[in-house]
């Protein structure tokens, strides 16, 4: 079958031939892939920078997507860490790691939105007890996941959402999605009294924001939940030890591992429903899978979705 094939961590995938998939386990099924998103996680696994990279080549990237099963029903499926991902004409899914979709869904929209939407949805639902009326600061709010986080925090009843980033014009556009305020990382002190931080950047910007925020916090005994979700600005962050002592700061992470597969699966139908119903603004760009090598490093505000 035709697929995107990675042969080394330092080279983009090439469109070529890959052996057709075979279902082995009791719950496995060969499916037709309709749409699969080029998420940061996909790039990071293929270039070896993600903690779940296996280093096994050849590798077909793609961690999730919309598929047609053998009964012609549509499903959203998440794959395990194996070498055959979704950037192919066919894939093998574990039916237990998939959710049925209505037959009138837009596969590209679902494939674009599920991974970015899941990031804040799971963090707020499964890593803390988020309550209506709480306030949220989003670090790295201008990306696909941050844009979703603005909308999802509001959906879950956030009273105040502050969007932080480095690009003023992209930040300004977040007001129409529900952001109450926008700030640079250095201006995080303006959100000093938030209850929750959703952190997509880590690295230097997070450390800068954490120090500014803690210093300016009026009630340092009030709980501050800092949820580490992405590391687009650096895998490590020079967090000053004082911030951990000077405020009631609790840092945790949210991702595959810290949220169990069962918990993820329990949330997927509601996320898919919200996306399908048009309740979340989604920016998606369908691209033929044959153009994977060119599209791999493209700079775009839209989430690229490969269509075999
Ligand atoms: N744990 C999870 O469940 C989960 C799920 C989804 C995503 N993530 C992670 O979250 C992160 C963001 O993902 P995404 O889907 O939003 O990616 P994306 O759509 O490609 O957006 C990238 C974002 O990162 C910002 N950025 C890039 N380099 C930066 C830097 N050096 N300093 C500050 N900001 C920088 C960009 O800001 P500009 O607008 O200024 O360019 C943009 O807002 C990634 O690390 C991804 O792996 C985690």
Summarize the structure.
InterPro entries: ADH-like_C (IPR013149), GroES-like_sf (IPR011032), NAD(P)-bd_dom_sf (IPR036291), Zn-ADH-like_protein (IPR051397). This protein has 308 residues and is of the alpha/beta class. The protein has two domains: 2-105 and 278-307, Medium-chain alcohol dehydrogenases, catalytic domain (Quinone Oxidoreductase, Chain A, domain 1), CATH 3.90.180; 116-253, NAD(P)-binding Rossmann-like Domain (Rossmann fold), CATH 3.40.50.
Number of helices: 8
**Named CATH topology of the largest domain:** Rossmann fold
Poorly predicted sequence stretches spanning 5 or more consecutive residues: none
What pattern of helices and strands is seen along the backbone? EEEHEEEEHEHEHEEHEHEHEHE
Task: Count all strands and give the number.
Answer: 15
Distinct small-molecule ligands in the complex: NADP nicotinamide-adenine-dinucleotide phosphate
| Global morphology | globular
CATH architecture of the largest domain: 3-Layer(aba) Sandwich
CATH superfamily annotation of the largest domain:
NAD(P)-binding Rossmann-like Domain
Rg from alpha-carbon coordinates: 20 Å
Total domains? 2
Strand content: 15-25%
| Most strands sheet | 7 strands, mixed
Q: What structural class do helix, strand and pairing data support?
A: alpha/beta
């Amino acid at each position: 079958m035709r697929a995107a094939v990675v042969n080394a961590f330092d080279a983009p995938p090439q469109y070529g031939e890959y052996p057709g998939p075979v279902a082995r386990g009791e719950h496995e099924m060969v499916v037709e892939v309709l749409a699969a998103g080029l998420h940061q996680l996909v790039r990071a696994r293929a270039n070896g920078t993600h903690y779940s990279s296996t280093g096994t080549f050849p590798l077909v990237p793609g961690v999730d997507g919309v598929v047609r099963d053998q009964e012609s029903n549509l499903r959203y499926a998440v794959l395990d860490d194996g070498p055959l991902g979704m950037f192919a004409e066919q894939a093998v899914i574990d039916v237990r790691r998939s959710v049925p979709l209505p037959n009138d869904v837009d596969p590209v929209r679902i494939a674009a939105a599920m991974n970015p939407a899941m990031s804040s949805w799971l963090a707020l639902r499964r890593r803390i007890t988020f309550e209506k009326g709480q306030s949220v600061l989003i670090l790295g709010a201008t990306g696909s996941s941050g844009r979703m986080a603005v909308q999802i925090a509001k959906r879950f009843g956030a009273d105040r959402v502050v969007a932080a980033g480095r690009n003023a014009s992209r930040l300004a556009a977040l007001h129409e999605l529900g952001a109450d305020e926008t700030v640079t990382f250095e201006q995080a002190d303006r959100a000093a009294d938030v209850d929750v931080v959703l952190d997509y950047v880590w690295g230097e910007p997070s450390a800068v924001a954490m120090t500014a925020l803690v210093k300016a916090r009026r009630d340092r005994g009030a709980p501050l939940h800092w949820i580490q979700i992405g590391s687009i600005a650096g895998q490590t962050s020079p967090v000053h030890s004082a911030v951990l002592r000077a405020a009631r700061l609790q840092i945790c992470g949210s991702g595959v591992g810290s949220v169990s597969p069962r918990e993820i699966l329990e949330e997927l139908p509601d996320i898919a429903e919200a996306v399908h119903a048009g309740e979340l603004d989604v920016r998606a760009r369908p691209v033929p899978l044959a153009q994977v090598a060119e599209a791999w490093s493209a700079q775009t505000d839209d989430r690229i979705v490969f269509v075999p």
